[in-house]
From TrEMBL:
Lineage: Bacteria, Pseudomonadati, Myxococcota, Myxococcia, Myxococcales
Superkingdom, natural source: Bacteria
Organism: Archangium gephyra
Name of the protein described by the UniProt record: Quinone oxidoreductase
PANTHER family: QUINONE OXIDOREDUCTASE PIG3, QUINONE OXIDOREDUCTASE PIG3-RELATED
Domain (Enoyl reductase (ER)): residue spans on this chain: 10-323
Pfam families, per database record: ADH_N, ADH_zinc_N
Length: 326
């Protein structure tokens, strides 16, 4: 089968489309013929040699797929050949065939094509887990979402508005700000031109927010904490700018603030299945009714993987970048 592989570490020059052996489904695994996959920031870090693939997982990049069931292992029950499924995988998405744990496999809603399903897989799982399980999001909350134009950011904004909370977000351009307002953001802050902390305090009349969803890391830590109400929560979803930072522990203690972190890929499979189950219980019916949909920036054929990655690295995307596998 065809697969994207990284031959060494570095820039686009290490990306190759090669013929590799087709995986074999055993145990709890489904073999899925991939019709669409979706890009993720971790794929770039893996290519650059910054991110190490967890032991036992596929070195082929990509963690989000949509396709049809081809075969399965001896422990799998309840699936049929040709069934349309989507889900998060432990690597291997950028290939003609991929292995998907049966507990991570979700039926594709009838109103969705493969591209929409691939764009939903990881972003909806992560948004649901971080907003609700970790952040305790409730109707009436005020939430700040950094990187609002990312695939997870656009998903978070929709979820926040769907339950009746207020969504503020940071974005890098006026075009992105307009797009976020169109999908429901109450305010989009241009972080290159405005101090987001000042703007949030102005918008909330000095009260701050109950919840901050951060993809940036150390560079934003102090300002994020300064925005939180008493007993507010900061959830760190990504580390794009700073793996460490100083911390005002007195503020943390006095205001009973919470800081939580999230990573899906490093968790054991039984926990991943629980995360997926929570997503299905809360959002599959909503998705089937068309009340929420993934935001798709662009679609490229698998052969143009490097072009698609360059679009993401340039931070031009609003929502998900999808790959079609032919």
């Amino acid at each position: 089968m065809r697969a994207i592989v990284y031959e060494g570490s570095g820039g686009p020059e290490v990306v190759k489309l090669r013929e590799v052996p087709k995986p074999v489904a055993t145990g709890d695994l489904l073999l899925v013929k991939v019709h669409a996959s979706a890009l993720n920031r971790a794929d770039i870090l893996q290519r650059q040699g910054i991110y190490k693939v967890p032991e036992g997982q596929s070195p082929i990049p990509g963690v989000e797929i949509a396709g049809t069931v081809e075969d399965w292992g001896e422990n799998v029950k309840g699936f049929v050949r040709g069934q349309r499924v989507f889900g998060v995988v432990e690597g291997g998405a950028y290939a003609d065939y991929c292995l998907l744990d049966q507990g991570m496999a979700n039926p594709i809603p009838e109103s969705f094509g493969f591209r929409e399903a691939a764009a939903t897989a990881e972003s909806f799982l992560t948004a649901n887990e971080t907003l609700f399980a970790l952040g305790g999001l409730q109707p009436g909350y005020k939430v700040l979402v950094h990187a609002g134009a990312s695939s997870i950011g656009t998903t978070m904004v929709q979820m926040i508005k769907h339950i009746g909370a207020t969504a503020y977000c940071t974005v890098g351009s006026q075009k992105k700000a307009e797009a976020l307002r169109e999908i429901g953001a109450d305010e989009a802050i241009l972080y290159k031109e405005q101090d987001f902390a000042h703007e949030v305090m102005r918008l909330t009349r000095g009260e701050g927010v109950e919840l901050v969803m951060d993809f940036v890391g150390g560079a934003y830590l102090e300002r994020n904490l300064s925005l939180l109400k008493h007993e507010g929560c900061l959830v760190v979803v990504g580390l794009l700018d700073g793996m460490s930072a100083g911390l005002d522990l007195l503020r943390l203690v006095q205001r009973r603030l919470q800081i939580k972190g999230s990573s899906l890929r490093l968790r054991p499979m039984n926990e991943k299945r629980q995360v997926n189950a929570h997503f299905r219980q809360r959002w599959m019916e909503v998705l089937s009714r068309g009340q929420l949909r993934p935001v798709i920036h662009a679609e490229y054929p698998l052969e143009q993987f490097s072009v698609a990655q360059a679009e993401m690295e340039a931070n031009r995307n609003i929502g998900k970048i999808v790959l079609s596998h032919g």
